Amino acid sequence: AMYEAKDAGGAQYHVYHDDMYQRVAQRVMLESEVRQALAKNQFSLSLQPQLSAQDKKLYGLEALLRWHHPERGMVSPDDFIPIIEKSEHMIELGYWVIRRCFELSKELRNKGYKDVRIAINLSAGQFSDINLPQYLSTLLAEFVLPANSFELELTEQTLVTDIEKAIDTMNNLKALGFTFAIDDFGTGYSSLAYLKRMPVDVIKIDKSFVFGMLENHADYQIIMSTIAMVKNLGLLVVAEGVESSAQLRSLTENECDIIQGYYFAKPVPEVELFAFLDSHIDE
Ligand code: C2E
Ligand code: CA
Ligand code: CA
Ligand code: CA
C-alpha cells in the first residue's frame, strides 16, 4: 500500500509538472500570438442584446470578444482570456475592446439607438491598470459620448484582489458617469457587505443558475431570492443564459428586469449588428 501511495503521488506530481509546463508554454505562445493578432485584425466583437423583461425593449448590448485565428479557427474567449488574463497583452487587447465599443456606441447613436448601453467586460488586470480612468475619460472627450452609454462589467473575482482599491477605482469612474454591473453573481466570493459599499447599478445572475432553474429547486430559490434582494437594494437585475420561453416567463413573473440569452438572441457579429437591430428590435 505504501508503494502504491508513493507511486500514485509520484505519477500525480509528474502529471502536474507536465501540465504546468504545457500551460506555461501555451501561455507564452498565446501571448505572442495576441500581439500579432491585434496587428492583423483577427479580433472582432459580437454583441448580445439585453431586453427589458416587461416590454421587450432593447436595454443594452454586451460586447463579447471573438478571435478568428487563421489556423485554429474561432477561438473562444473562455479558451484564451483566462490564460493571458494577467499579461500586459490582455491589457492591450482590453483597450482595443474599449475603443471598439466607443466606436460602436457612436454608430448606434448616429443610427437613432440613443439609449442603448454597451456592456464592456473588464478583466482584473485591466481594472487595476492605473491608466484605465485616464484612458476612459480621453475617449469620452474624443467621441463626445456620455459615460452612462457604457456599463462596465466586473466579476466578483476581479473585485476581491484588492477590495479597497477596487472600490476607489469604481468611485472615480462612477464620478465620470460610468455605470457598473457585477457579472457572474453568485459564483465568486460575493460579499454582500462589500456590495453595499460599491457604486453598483446592475447585478447579473450567472447563467449556471438559469440553465436548470425550472428543474432544480435550489437554483430556482437562489435566483428568486437574488432578484428580491437586488430589487430591494434599488438595483437592476439581469438574468443571462435564458434559453427558453418557460424560463423567460418565470423570470418575468418574478420581476427580473432584464433578460439576456439565446432565447432572444445569440451574440451578433458586429458586421451584422445594424441589419439585425433593424429587423429584430423595435426601439
Ligand atoms: P460572460 O461575461 O459571462 O459572458 C456571457 C457568456 O455567455 C458569453 O460567452 C455568451 O455568448 C454566453 N451566453 C449568453 N447567453 C447564453 C445562453 O442563453 N446560453 C448559453 N449556453 N450561453 C450564453 P462567450 O462569448 O463565449 O464569452 C465567454 C466569457 O469570456 C465571458 O463570459 C467573459 O468572461 C469572457 N469575455 C468575453 N469577451 C470579453 C472581453 O472583451 N473582455 C474580457 N475581459 N472578458 C471577455
Ligand atoms: Ca459579462
Ligand atoms: Ca456572465
Ligand atoms: Ca462567465
Tell me what you see in this structure.
It contains twelve helices and ten strands. It has helices at 2-39, 77-84, 88-110, 124-127, 132-143, 156-160, 163-176, 192-197, 207-211, 217-232, 245-253, 273-280; strands at 43-52, 58-69, 73-75, 117-121, 150-155, 179-185, 202-205, 236-239, 258-260, 268-269. An eight-stranded mixed beta barrel has the order 1-2-4-5-6-7-8-9. The longest helix is centred in the N-terminal third of the chain and has 38 residues, at 2-39. It is globular.
Q: What is the strand and helix layout of this fold?
A:
Layout: H1 2-39, E1 43-52, E2 58-69, E3 73-75, H2 77-84, H3 88-110, E4 117-121, H4 124-127, H5 132-143, E5 150-155, H6 156-160, H7 163-176, E6 179-185, H8 192-197, E7 202-205, H9 207-211, H10 217-232, E8 236-239, H11 245-253, E9 258-260, E10 268-269, H12 273-280
Parallel strand pairs: 2-4, 4-5, 5-6, 6-7, 7-8, 8-9
Antiparallel strand pairs: 1-2, 1-9, 1-10, 2-3
Helix pairs in contact: 1-3, 3-5
The chain binds ligand C2E and calcium ion (CA) (3 copies).
GO molecular function: catalytic activity
Keywords: Coiled coil, Membrane, Transmembrane, Transmembrane helix
Organism: Thalassotalea piscium
> What does the largest sheet look like?
8 strands, mixed, barrel
Strand-residue proportion: 15-25%
Give the helices and strands as they follow along the chain.
HEEEHHEHHEHHEHEHHEHEEH
Globular, elongated, flat, extended or rod-shaped: what is the shape?
globular
- The number of helical segments is 12
Low-confidence stretches: 1-14
- Rounded to the nearest angstrom, the radius of gyration is 21 Å
Structural class: alpha/beta
Q: Compute the separation of the termini in Å.
A: 70 Å
Query: In total, how many beta strands?
Result: 10
Binned, the helix content reads: 40-55%
* Unique ligands: ligand C2E, calcium ion
Mean pLDDT: 89
Q: Largest sheet, order of strands side by side?
A: 1-2-4-5-6-7-8-9
